[in-house]
Design goal:
Layout lengths: L1 H27 L4 H10 L2 H10 L4 H11 L2 E3 L6 E3 L18
Antiparallel strand pairs: 1-2
Helix pairs in contact: 1-2, 1-3, 2-3
């Protein structure tokens, strides 16, 4: 009896860990990780992983996160995104405003 319980507990722990992996993968692709985590818990982590994998990456969400973190700068003239170390925009040549420290 205790062997059966330990097997069930092992499967449950594996299911939750795999669902957390789906959460991380969905978040990495710019999707709402919580929705896919709950889907994986209820249905199947494998199915949820496949659904996330076939969807395109949400580049707008990832760019917005990078802007918020300060990893990217947006050109005030043309709106092109550049790395945080850039001192001028590559396409238009507009210098980025200096950041006060």
């Amino acid at each position: 009896m205790s062997d059966a319980i330990s097997v069930v507990i092992g499967w449950m722990i594996g299911w939750v860990v795999a669902s957390l992996g789906v959460y991380a993968f969905a978040d990495w692709k710019g999707k709402n990780g919580l929705v896919y985590f709950l889907f994986a818990l209820i249905f199947s982590p494998v199915i949820a992983f496949i659904i996330v994998a076939v969807q395109p990456t949400s580049q707008e969400v990832l760019d917005a996160r990078a802007l918020k973190r300060g990893d990217l700068k947006e050109c005030p003239n043309c709106g092109v995104l550049s790395g945080y170390l850039a001192y001028k925009c590559d396409p238009c040549g507009e210098p980025f405003p200096r950041e006060s420290s």
